[in-house]
Amino acid sequence: MSSSVEAITVLSSDGDEFKITVSAAKLSKPLNWMLEDVCFSDDCDEVPTIEVNSKTLVKVIEYCEKHAPRANSGASDSDAEELKKWDIEFMKMDVKDILFHILMAANYLHMEGLYDLACQTAADLMKGMTVSQIRKIFHIKNDFSSEEQEQLRRQHPGCSFD
Amino acid sequence: MVRQPNSNLPQELLEDILSRVPYKSLSRFKCVSKFWYALFSDPKFQALHLSHFIKHHTFDNSVLLGLSFPSGLNLQNYKLFSLSGNDSSAVDNLLPKFKLLSTKFRISGHCNGILCLAGGYWSHNDEVILYNPATREFTSLPDSKMRSNSSSALAVGLGYDSRTDDYKVVRIWSVDTGVYTTNRVEVYSLNTDSWTRMYNSNTRDFDFAEDCFALFFKGTYYWWGSKRGDKSTIILGLTMGHEDFLKVSVPDNVDISKSNGRSLAVWKQSISLICCSGSGLNMSIDIWVMKGSGVQCSWTKMQSVTSLLLEEPKPLVFWKENEILLETTNGEIKSYNVVTQKIKDLKIEGNPVLHSVQAVNYEATLVPIKGGSYLT
Q1: Is the pLDDT of residue B23 over 60?
Q2: Does residue B186 share a domain with residue B76?
Q3: Can you spell out the DSSP letters for B316-354?
Q4: Dihedral sign computed on CA atoms, order B43, B49, B54, B58
Q5: In B, which residues are within 8 Å of A123 by CB distance?
Q6: Does residue B1 form part of some domain?
Q7: Of the candidates B53, B92, B117, B6, which has an alpha carbon nearest to the alpha carbon of residue B365?
């Protein structure tokens, strides 16, 4: 890889091209390996594909670019505080529509920071939900028979199946 | 393990998310499906849940209050109340019904959602119980060999040993040998369900009073003690796995001799010392934070509050990030925010007995108590 390259081009699973700076790509181990293996100079034709859809990849790259300066050089406490606030704003998104996709992408791209953030955000969103809301989000059928429900109600007074 | 059908999220990721959901919600979600019900009682999942809980939890969103209430002729009835972060006026009763502890007991320690309840110094009852109020599982600790006519149990403290995944109770006894009075220390392990005497605890230079256990934080037990010579108050640290007490000096020029005017608490992931002195116009609350640990630690004064006009308040714990719970001499509980400097009254029904309040930062957990049984 030429040291003069500052940004690389990758393809999403939908075939769209995205640019990501080298320093931001370093947040992901697989992308980092790619930097070493794949030729990114202008005379190369090969553009690596990331198995993440465009909608999700936009967000993942946005996260990487925001976090890259701190990850690469360290930062002061006030920067860390600012970044924390940014993370909270960044995570304001629909659970099913995008958050789970980001979680899966962070897992696939070995991005520990984003993975933890997405997991915790999902957990925080779920904790206030009702049982039926949970079932809807995860496409789960209530597979307790009415006898089993009755038994559970006796064992755990106040438990609800809705 | 059974794979869960029809979920768009890989099972490993779903379990990882669920392991970060607070216990209170999980106990509702067990009704989602048979798979979820089974998952929450899987020991592997419980271990993952606990590890996230310890790593990420600040433990300060809710508090358990232990309060005595007058009932009949001088008999005191002990009750547990939970105080949650969002609503500071509503308190729930979590009264456990233990036969032997029904008249008087104290919260003698707590760790990862498990409470250590003991009969207390004056009850002449050295029964110790570990109790998880969320799962209602409990166990009664076996009798100690140290019990004799010449010994009395001063205090017990509960801690967690992450290396062996074990809960350990430390108890200090005061023993009258006939010639002199000395301390003896013993440790109970939940894994082995037995007490072991700690021989080199190095306590001959210190006096302990009843209820000298202060708190367990990051692998270290903290006890209040005093030097045998000049009777000055000190803090003693007992680190998990080490058999000797480390002396932790207290801030200079601070009078912490009055036990109702000081408290060790956790604030912003550090040990803090809250000292109250004076009353009315001369009242002040000083807050110190411990930097480092053991002999190398030092205290930094964070704040001095002087404008509250309270009569000899007793500091309890920090909660909701920046609020201190205080008990006043007329039996009220107040919550003081050290940032906004606002003070709020907390309503507790039933006229609790004065000077009886205990408070611990508590959060419900799934933590099982090995060999325990369930309250019905």
Answers
A1: yes
A2: yes
A3: EEEETTTEEEEE-TTS-EEEEETTT--EEEE--TT-PPT
A4: negative
A5: 17-18, 20-21
A6: no
A7: B53
**Tokens standing for B274?**
């809250």
Which tokens hold the place of B364? Answer: 């419900």
Is residue B37 domain-shared with residue B170, that is, in the same domain?
A: no
Q: How many domains does chain B have?
A: 2
B20 CB neighbours in chain A (<8 A) are 119-120, 123
Helix, strand, coil percent values for chain A (each to nearest 5) = 60, 5, 35
Q: Where are the domains of chain A?
A: 7-128
Residue A4 has a pLDDT of 55
Binning pLDDT at 50, 70 and 90, where does residue B73 land? Answer: low
Closest A-chain CA to B136: A156
Cβ atoms < 10 Å from Cβ of B207: 18
Please tell me whether residues B163 and B123 are part of one structural domain.
yes
Both B45 and B67 in one domain: the answer is no
In the structure, what pLDDT confidence band is assigned to residue B4 with cuts at 50, 70 and 90? very low
Whether residue B5 lies inside any domain: the answer is no
Q: Quick one: pLDDT band at residue B154, thresholds 50, 70, 90?
A: confident
Q: Does B6 map to a domain? A: no
Which candidate from B7, B20, B27 shows the least CB-CB separation from A138? Answer: B7
Q: Give yes or no: residues B25 and B91 share one domain.
A: no
Q: Same structural domain for residues B28 and B175?
A: no
Nearest by CB: B13 against A104, A126, A139: A104
Assess if residue B2 is contained within a domain: no
Specify the pTM: 0.75
Q: Which domain holds residue B34?
A: 11-54
Nearest-neighbour CA in chain B from A115: distance (Å) = 10
| Digit-coded pLDDT (tens) for B254-271 | 777 777 788 999 998 889
**What are phi and psi for residue B54, nearest 5 degrees?**
-70, -40
The answer on B185 and B333 residing in a single domain is yes
Q: How far is A22 from chain B (nearest CA, A)?
A: 28
Q: Give the C-alpha separation, A57 to A109, whole Å.
A: 11
Closest CA of chain B from A133, distance in Å: 10
Judged by CB atoms closer than 8 Å, whether chains meet at A152 and B31 is answered as yes
On whether the A7-128 domain is CATH 3.30.710.10, my answer is yes
What is the pLDDT at residue B5? Answer: 39
Cβ within 8 Å, pair A144-B31: yes
Query: Measured between beta carbons, which residues in chain B are less than 8 angstroms from residue A53?
Result: none
> Is B38 in the same domain as B134?
no
